[in-house]
Amino acid sequence: MNLLxxxxxxxxxxxxxxxxxxxxxxxWQHDRQALEHARKRHxxxxxxxxxxxDVHVPESEALRAEGRWFCSSAHRDRYANERASDDxxxxx
Length: 92
Prior knowledge:
single chain, alpha+beta, two-stranded antiparallel ribbon, two-stranded antiparallel sheet, 2 helices, transmembrane
């Protein structure tokens, strides 16, 4: 009976240590990926200006439509809608 309890305690300790090591490994992976992502953002390349709001964003994060740069899809859509409404002939 005593041997069974000792084995159970040893198994619990080994299991607990394994969980802690796995948690540290996952945290290390997450930190490394976050660092790489931050480094890539800093190496985003050339800055381009949004056609709608004149904000400069890295070319890697910008959207391109009709040969123009935009900081978001909302600004791209607004610009397209405004151009479409300007191209319509007025009925006066």
